[in-house]
Structures are given as C-alpha cells and as structure tokens.
Amino acid sequence: MRKWLKRLGYAGLTLFLLLWTATTVFGVYFTIRPRVDQFEDPDTFAGHPVESVTITTEDGINLSAWYIKASDDQAVILLAGIDGNRTSCRSRGEFFLDRGYSVLLPDLRASGRSEGRAVTIGWRERKDLVACFDFLKDRGHGYIGADGISLGAATICYAMPDLPDLSFAIIESSYDTLVNAVRNRLAMFKTPHFIAYPYYVGFGVIAGVPPWRMRPVDYVAHASAPTLVLAGDSEVEIPVHETQSIYERCAAPLKRLHFFKGAGHWDFLGRYTEEYTQVVDSFLNEASTGREATRLTQRLPHAP
Question: Where are the beta strands (DSSP E) in the chain?
Fold first, then answer.
C-alpha cells in the first residue's frame, strides 16, 4: 500500500511539474508572440496626405509607419498597446492633427507590419521610440512629444534616459513593474503568484533583460520633459497606487496626474472624449507655455 501511495505521489508531482512547465511555455509565448496584421495604406488621414515610411532601429529592425505632416515644428509619436498597432491610434492621430501637430504612427516591433520576432512589453520597443524620434528630428521637427497606451506607455518610460530632448510625454495606463503586472493579472484568475516564477526566467531570456530591471517606475526618474500620467481608477490590471508611484517617481519639472472615474484598462479618448480632451488640451497648453517661456529667457540679453 505504501509503495502504491509513493508511486501515486511521484505521479502527481510529475503531472504538476508538467502542467507548470506547459503553463509557463504558454504564458511566455502568449506574451511575446508577434501580432502581425495586414492593412491598406490610406492616401489621406483626416484630410492630410499620408506618407508610408520605413524606420530602422539601432538593432536593425525595420518599422512600418505612417507619417502625416501638419506642422514643420511640432510633432507627436503615437504608440499602441500590446494587441494593437498604428490603426489602434487613429482617433489620437485625428486628435493631434486637429491641434496642428504632425503625427507619426508606427507599428512597434513584432506588431502590425513591422519586423521583429518578439513583443517585450516595452523593453526593446524603447529602441523603436528612439528611432521614431530621430526620424522626426531628421524631418526638421524641433518640438516632438510621445503618447503611449499600456505597452506604448511603458515604452515611453523605458526610453526616457535615451530621450533627454523629448518635448512632452503622455503615459496612459502603464504598469509600474513587470512583477506587479503579472501578479495583478494572475489575481484576476485567483491564481497564486508563485506559478509565475519560471515565466520570469523564460521571458527574461527572450527579452534579454533580467525581470527585476523591467520597472517603468524607475525609468521615469529620468524624465525631463513635461509628463502627463493618465489611468482609470478602476483598472484591475493597474491599481491606483501603482499609477501614483509612477507619478511620484517622475522627475519632470512639470507633471500632471489624472484618473478617469469608473474607468478600467480602456481607451480613454473613445469613452471619456470630453474629459480626455479637456485634460490633454490643458496639459499641452501648459507644456507649450513652458517652452515659450524658456525660449524668451534664452533670447533675453545676459546682465554684464
């Protein structure tokens, strides 16, 4: 009897380990799998001609993007979330075009029509943002901001040390740390956190970064551009205190925080159009006023 119980125990342990391994492999694959999509390039966007461009990153990834010019000076880069691409940012593109900004809509690596083998939740995508920024600089734009949603928001955070000349940043629903992002999602399914430990190892190997470094909350400490942090106060994936930690750690001289009441991990512009418009317009005006004040100060003659 004891012999059979012992064998049964070994069999149960083996089955548990096999299921744990399978769950880990699936979890890593589900995260990093490419989100390829095919769509037509429009001739115009909100009444403006569309230029289809290819932007090459520092590590040799070719990004596919739409460039819509509305200004010689001010421009914005719009970054989608994990399951989206440039088409997910159409409404934001129209929003900024209406305000006189040129718009760059890229597909981040391994998404849409861009190259890339893996989605890394913002870590390697930070190189995509830097390449997009350099593209706009080469086109003559001097005032360049970035607006990102979820993965796109984390991308902006990770890129802040490499973009000291960014003119403004809008961070919408960014996770604060990879560990919290995973823990919160597991909690939605009442799954214990220890199940994710092998996931961190697998994802870290593919992303090329130790999981403990994947902390957008640490990278916003390098922010120098005016920064607006947005989130829903009912997001299960990102509790309020985690968004507040990003805001508190943000080193930008001008920073603002806004929660949309009752909102989950949603598209705020689409669901809270009037409120989103008021909040973002106010922030953009503040950022622009600060820029003009800096320009005026630089023009003033220095006292002998």
Answer: 35-36, 44-45, 48-49, 51-56, 62-68, 74-79, 102-106, 111-112, 143-149, 168-172, 227-232, 255-260
Distance CA 230, CA 260 (A): 8
Query: Which residues does the chain have with pLDDT short of 50?
Result: 296-299, 303-304
Segments making up each domain of the chain, as ranges: 20-296
Alpha-carbon distance of 16 to 269, in angstroms, equals 44
CATH 3.40.50.1820 fits 20-296, yes or no: yes
Residue 155 contacts residue 129 (beta carbons within 8 Å): yes
- Please give the pLDDT value at position 195: 84
The neighbouring-strand residues paired with 55 are: 63
DSSP per residue, 29-51: HHHHS-EE---PPPSEETTEE-E
Cβ neighbours for 91, distance < 8 A, ≥ 6 positions apart: 267, 269, 270
Taking the whole predicted model, whether its pTM rises above 0.90 is answered as yes
The span from the CA of 132 to the CA of 116, in Å, is: 16
The DSSP symbol for 162 reads: G
- The CA distance from 119 to 116, in Å, is 8
Per-residue model confidence as pLDDT tens digits over 201-241? 889 988 889 989 999 999 999 999 999 999 999 999 999 99
Taking each helix axis from N to C terminus, what angle separates 151-159 and 125-138, rounded to the nearest 10 degrees?
70
